[in-house]
Specification:
Number of strands of chain A: 19
Helix content of chain A: 10-25%
Radius of gyration of chain B: 13 Å
CATH architecture of chain B: Beta Barrel
Oligomer: heterodimer
Number of domains of chain B: 1
Strand order of the largest sheet of chain B: 1-2-3-9-8-5
CATH superfamily of chain B: RNA polymerase II/Efflux pump adaptor protein, barrel-sandwich hybrid domain
Strand order of the largest sheet of chain A: 10-11-12-9-3-13
Number of domains of chain A: 3
Largest sheet of chain A: 6 strands, mixed
CATH class of chain B: Mainly Beta
Largest sheet of chain B: 6 strands, antiparallel
CATH topology of the largest domain in chain A: Gyrase A, domain 2
CATH superfamily of the largest domain in chain A: Probable tRNA modification gtpase trme, domain 1
Distance between the termini of chain B: 15 Å
Number of strands of chain B: 9
Strand content of chain A: 25-35%
CATH class of the largest domain in chain A: Alpha Beta
Structural class of chain B: alpha+beta
Strand content of chain B: 25-35%
Distance between the termini of chain A: 44 Å
CATH architecture of the largest domain in chain A: 2-Layer Sandwich
Order of helices and strands of chain B: EEEHEEEEEHHEH
Shape of chain A: globular
CATH topology of chain B: OB fold (Dihydrolipoamide Acetyltransferase, E2P)
Chain lengths: 366, 129
């Protein structure tokens, strides 16, 4: 039984009633699976899946100084965003380690909507608020939103049945404020699965209705309710970083292969000088994908050996349901963090062979 | 739900006894808790195993979990099917998804294992249902 201290989303009772298996996920009582991780994973790759990701946090930055503050606390170029556009970005400390990885949505030049990781939301809010020397308004508004992810090749067809917004006109990493089932909803073409799809935000009191409407609408396409277990196997195949695994407070974007979200020429921002130094000097370690060649599964935290010496660690690892291979990501010294290196992963005191490969492991056909 | 003729452990393994050989597996409750099983690591034929000591592991998509031997003895056969079809463990935990056969070296150990009814009660208490 969950302890009284676990946080819940507005759909908690719905998940329990539907027989989802619930787990403590960073302090939240969340569904890890409905019918089974493999089945849900395959549904997202071949049809569609619906995820409750309301544990994710929202922070809203408003006012005449909103753009300047958002730009100052994040690594990507906020000035380049058009209204209705979003981007992936880093929220860093001065030493260039991650406070969090986030999505920044530009609603208007004086209004930015940040989607942040569940267990980081208070920390992120304090971090941004403490840097607010300007006069922007910074608000942690997570309890005003339910966030659902509809992901997979039939996500668009599913959601289109419930909205008059022309979904095929929303480009990747863009969004509109429209309605779904008559409920005012922010509809973003974003995701964390490597598939086409949408993440939608709306007021929590409508949660059960929208959840059920989307499952009904997607029934003809084979949509399945999905838990966080499949979300993790999907994002791993897509080579996407997970806070606490590939990135954390002592990992920088360059080390994590996220140089593309760092815009050193955009002007001053938190972490810029440390990043500029790292760009000049190079990084000591880098993230690289691997595939097990021996029998076994390299999992998070396992040690990695190269030439019989400790050389790094696994950040995420597990079976790839799409590729039917055991895959993962690990940190290695920069000069060895390239494809084709024979490594060993220490699996419960046994060195098991693996080989480094480029990530992502899976790319959808466009 | 839990076959009467099996003997159970609190670590969620079972033994089916035939003469001095025990067929060993994990319970339906265990496979259900683990979810989709993708990899099974078993001892070699000829290995000596001890009651309540680790003899292998099962991995689901999300986690790895130890298998503890419910009895002491020598492994005389392993279920090779699991190497290529680990999902058998989910589909038939008390049948085709058996793990190993062990020639018992201390048959009296069986007395200390749980009956189906006691195991079912134990699971109910553990999960709070």
């Amino acid at each position: 039984m969950p302890t009284a201290t676990l946080k819940t989303t507005a759909l908690h009772a719905t998940h329990r009633r539907a027989g989802a298996k619930m787990v403590d996920f960073g302090g939240w009582d969340m569904p890890v699976q409905y019918s089974g991780i493999l089945e849900e994973h395959r549904a997202v790759r071949s049809a569609a899946g619906l995820f409750d990701v309301s544990h994710m946090g929202e922070i809203e930055i408003r006012g005449a100084d909103a753009a300047a503050l958002t730009d100052y606390v994040t690594t990507n170029a906020v000035q380049k965003l058009e209204p209705g556009q979003a981007h992936y970005s880093g929220l860093l400390y001065e030493h260039a380690g991650f406070v969090d990885d986030i999505l920044v949505h530009k609603i208007a030049s004086d209004n930015y909507f940040l989607c942040v990781n569940a267990s980081n939301q208070e920390k992120d809010y304090q971090h941004i608020a403490s840097l607010n020397k300007l006069h922007a308004s910074v608000e942690l508004t997570s309890d005003r939103y339910t966030q659902l992810a509809i992901q997979g090749p039939r996500a668009l067809a599913t959601l289109q049945k419930l909205t008059s917004s022309a979904l095929d006109a929303i480009r990747y990493y863009h969004f509109v404020d429209g309605s779904v089932s008559g409920i005012p909803t922010r509809i973003a073409r974003t995701g964390y699965t490597g598939e086409d799809g949408f993440e939608i935000y709306f007021a929590p009191e409508h949660s059960e209705r929208l959840w059920n409407d989307i499952l009904d609408a997607g029934g003809e396409f084979g949509i399945k309710p999905c838990g966080l277990g499949a979300r993790n196997t999907l994002r791993l195949e897509a080579g996407m970083a997970l806070y606490g695994h590939e990135i954390h407070s002592t990992i920088t974007p360059f080390e994590a292969g996220l140089g593309w979200i760092v815009k050193l020429d955009k002007g001053e921002f938190i972490g810029r000088s440390a990043l500029a130094r790292q760009k000049d000097q190079g990084v000591a370690r880098k993230l690289i994908g691997f595939e097990m060649t021996g029998r076994g599964i390299g999992r998070d935290g396992y040690e990695v050996f190269l030439d019989d010496a400790p050389a790094g660690w696994v950040t995420s690892g597990g079976p790839s349901p799409t590729l039917n291979r055991n895959i993962g990501m690990c940190y290695l010294a920069s000069d060895r963090a390239k494809p084709g290196q024979r490594i060993q992963v220490m699996i419960r005191d046994q060195a098991v062979d693996a080989i480094t490969v480029p990530a992502p492991f899976y790319k959808r056909a466009k | 739900m839990y076959p009467e003729e099996l003997h159970y452990t609190k670590q969620h393994e079972w033994v089916r006894l035939k003469d001095d050989v025990g067929v060993v597996g994990i319970t339906d409750h265990a496979q259900n808790e683990l979810g989709d099983i993708v990899y099974v690591d078993l001892p070699r034929v000829g290995a000596k195993v001890e009651q309540a000591k680790t003899m292998g592991s099962v991995e689901s998509v999300k986690a790895v979990s130890d298998i503890y031997s419910p009895v002491s003895g020598e492994v005389i056969e392993i279920n090779d099917v699991l190497a290529t079809s680990p999902e058998k463990l989910n589909e038939s935990p008390h049948g085709d998804g058996w793990l190993v056969k062990i020639r018992l070296s201390a048959p009296a150990e069986i007395q200390g294992l749980l009956s189906a009814a006691d195991y079912e009660k134990y699971v109910a208490e553990e999960t709070g249902h």
